[in-house]
Write a structure and sequence with these properties.
single chain; 10 helices; 9% strand; globular
Length: 264
């Protein structure tokens, strides 16, 4: 009975979303594989961004996400807007997606975004042996806002920590697109990493995002993707981490509902 009621609620919610009028927003997406699998044009069904796009029907939407991307850097990270390796790497970071977005707008490829959404953090936790400082705390005095930083080595200890990387990237985006609204999505649960580690990363993103005046949408709850359930049966993911069509639709509709409330 409870399952039937939940299914009915989701059906009614979906009908409500389908009735939403098109928005005039120009949207840019940054992130890791769960955004990347939706395609640059957000048209592939396994990506949450396809379903998000279908609900909001924005004036334009483009994804700059890369599979394997992290918020945090390594000592070897450099500026590289061309690399697309599809796995964890020194230069496969949100920072380089920010740089690509800025370049695209300057070159007339990208309309100035009204809304920038960043969904990342899974790989920072999953590959903690490669990002050992990701979940460490960071004092405000240890890292300044990156309003004009073009070198990622200037404040390396800051970039190696999740809090610092969020702080720096938001600073760069605010400088480049002062009129844009920035929304941070926390990572979803995954069978590849402990729930408490994903929760800690989400808490860090939420706290820093809130301090910076960003909107934050938590995706690490059981009502989104449950790693416990995915271990028992693959319902919303193909492998415990990456969404299947059902999972992508669920997350896309969930994020769309939250964003609509933010912009209404």
């Amino acid at each position: 009975m409870r399952h039937w009621i939940a299914s009915l609620s989701l059906f009614v919610f979906a009908l409500h979303l389908e009735a939403v009028q098109p928005t005039a927003l120009h949207i840019a997406l940054l992130g890791d594989s769960n955004t990347w699998i939706g395609g640059d044009d957000c048209s592939k069904a396994r990506g949450w961004n396809k379903w998000f796009k279908e609900v909001l029907r924005p004036a334009s939407i483009r994804s700059y996400a890369r599979s394997g991307a992290t918020w945090t850097h390594t000592p070897a990270t450099t500026i590289d807007t061309k690399e697309n390796i599809g796995t964890l790497g020194d230069n496969n970071v949100i920072f380089n997606q920010v740089k690509r977005l800025i370049e695209a707008e300057k070159n007339g490829i990208q309309t100035i975004p009204d809304l920038i959404i960043i969904m990342a953090g899974t790989n920072d936790v999953w590959f903690n042996d490669k990002r050992p400082h990701a979940l460490e705390s960071l004092g405000q005095q240890d890292c300044y806002m990156a309003d004009a930083v073009d070198s990622v080595s200037v404040v390396l200890p800051c970039w190696q920590r999740l809090v610092g990387a969020v702080r720096q990237n938001v600073g760069l985006l605010r400088t480049a697109f002062p009129g844009a609204r920035i929304v941070l999505l926390t990572p979803m649960q995954t069978t590849a990493a402990p729930v408490d580690s994903i929760a800690k990363a989400s808490q860090l993103i939420e706290a820093e995002g809130g301090r910076l005046g960003c909107d934050v949408i938590r995706l690490d709850g059981d009502d989104c993707i449950s790693s416990k359930h995915e271990r028992q049966k693959r319902t919303h993911t193909s492998d415990g981490t990456h969404t299947n069509v059902a999972g992508a639709r669920k997350i896309g509709n969930y994020v769309a509902g939250k964003v609509l409330k933010l912009i209404e």
